[in-house]
Design goal:
10 helices; Spore Coat Polysaccharide Biosynthesis Protein SpsA, Chain A; alpha/beta
């Protein structure tokens, strides 16, 4: 197969048959489909098993538990055979109707990556829109990559996939790592549509964790910020110390502890925040040096 479709799934059983039907009608059985069941607790794997009996182009792998979407993508990319690999979600928000456009763009333009860019974010809570806005704003300022509007919906040729697979880190931020490769890229706009069924599996805390991984993986500026803050507080303390000593010697010192308490609270808060920032980087290092596998495959369906 020239093209492989890689789709991570987590509790998408209610829409899975329709999704596979849409892929079949668009691709006409001319693409390999690689499904990764990321520890689903519904009937996702049962449906995959049934669909595989009538679809010889379908390959599926069931992870032993929920390892997260980013690591499920790793499992799919490592097992895709196509000269071009398209990564897309299985909840309907990445429209299968865009696949022929992406494939044709790849064939005619000669670029290594065709990425689908969100022209709109669709219907989502205001808090999620604001969170995404500030995350990409911070990441753009702290790293050399502008990922605003980017998504995991993208086509990568074999050269780009092989280069991506050479990055062994376990704290994976797929779209950021793809941008880091620096390969030639074309963009295709699309509108994010509402999920067909169910609720998003990406909770608020999972988004926060992914944001922390993204920032700490592509920028060391927060660590430099700790140093800069420490230097500023030191000079502030030095000036305040000189002023306090002058008032004491001149007999102008005012009794009371309000200022001392306030300074202790400020400095204590800065220390805790600084330790938290350092802790995030130490956590990334700790997770990497353990050397555990990114995921564990429990079952597989191969034609």
């Amino acid at each position: 197969m020239e093209v492989s479709i890689v789709t991570p799934l987590c509790n998408e059983g209610a829409y899975l048959r329709e999704f596979l039907s849409d892929l079949k009608s668009v691709l006409q059985d001319r693409a390999e489909i690689v499904l990764i069941d990321d520890g689903s607790t519904d009937d996702t794997w049962k449906i995959i098993t049934e669909e595989a009996k009538s679809n010889p182009n379908l390959r599926a792998f069931r992870l032993s538990r929920n390892f997260g979407k980013e690591l499920a993508l790793c499992a799919g990319l490592e097992r895709a055979h196509g000269e071009a690999v398209i990564v897309m979600d299985g909840d309907g928000q990445h429209p299968p109707s865009l696949l022929p456009v992406m494939i044709e763009t790849w064939r005619t333009s000669g670029v290594d990556i065709v990425q689908a860019i969100k022209s709109t974010r669709g219907r989502e809570p205001l808090t999620e829109k604001l969170g995404a806005f500030f995350f990409y704003l911070i990441l753009t300022k702290l790293s050399p990559f502008d990922l605003r509007g980017a998504s995991d919906f993208k086509l990568m040729n074999r050269k780009a996939v092989n280069a991506w697979l050479e990055m062994p880190e376990r704290n994976v931020f797929f779209r950021g790592m793809t941008a880091w490769l620096g390969f030639t890229t074309a963009q295709v706009p699309f509108e994010v549509v509402a999920r067909r069924t169910g609720k998003p599996g990406f909770s608020f805390w999972k988004r926060i964790k992914l944001a922390l991984v993204g920032i700490t993986s592509f920028s060391t500026f927060p660590l430099h910020l700790v140093t800069l803050t420490g230097v500023l507080v030191f000079f502030f303390s030095l000036i305040l110390g000189v002023q306090t000593l002058y008032k004491k010697l001149s007999g102008q010192a005012v009794t009371g502890f309000a200022t001392v308490i306030l300074l202790e609270l400020i400095i204590g808060s800065l220390l805790m925040v600084s330790l938290g920032i350092i802790g995030e980087y130490l956590a990334r290092i700790y997770e990497e040096v353990k050397g555990r596998p990114r995921y564990v495959v429990r079952d597989a369906i191969e034609p």
